[in-house]
Amino acid sequence: MKTVIACASTAALSLLLVGSAWADSVSDSCEKLKSDVAKWKDDCPDEHLAAEKIVCKTKDDLNAMLKVHKTCGEKKVAKATAPKDASAPSDKKCRATLPDGTTVLAEETGKLMDCLKKLKEKVTTDKCTGDTKTFEYLTQTEVADKWTKGTKAKVTCPKKP
Q: 78: pLDDT confidence band, cut at 50, 70 and 90?
């Protein structure tokens, strides 16, 4: 009889330990999701408030937190993949300068690739004279009202007949 009781109490203790470990993982998982939503509070203020009310003790709390986390995640994805504001200007300013950046050779405005193409055409027209075979210059674009350091560029002058 003592052996049966000892086995039964050992089994109960094992179940208690397993149940406690499972409860900890539920609580830890819930808290992790809750901390993610807290980090995203600027993007998901409503979900952040809902997450603060969840206590993360039971499986139901974990499920509720999963729903809040999913909703917030969907909002973040929608915001990241939304088309940019159509009223925002898509034109960029670009310019060509001497390699040291001191003298502006040409300036253009337009979509970036078109802008750079027009610059190349202007530099080719202006600098490919006489015996010039190649001409090196710097292309710069304007970002937040400041010119970038620039990228080296080179035009190969067309052969003269």
A: confident
Residue 139 near residue 116, CB atoms below 8 Å: yes
Report the amino acid identity of residue 134. T
Which residues lie below 8 Å from residue 138, measured CB to CB, with a gap of 6+?
Answer: 96, 97, 98, 99, 101, 150, 151, 152, 153
β-pairing, 151-156 vs 134-143, is: antiparallel
Interatomic CA distance for residues 36 and 26, integer angstroms? 16
The total number of residues shown for the chain amounts to 161
The set of long-range contacts for 97-101, using a CB threshold of 8 Å and a minimum separation of 24, is 97/137, 97/138, 97/140, 97/150, 98/137, 98/138, 99/136, 99/137, 99/138, 99/152, 101/138, 101/140, 101/149, 101/150
Task: Encode pLDDT of 18-31 as tens digits.
Answer: 344 445 788 899 99
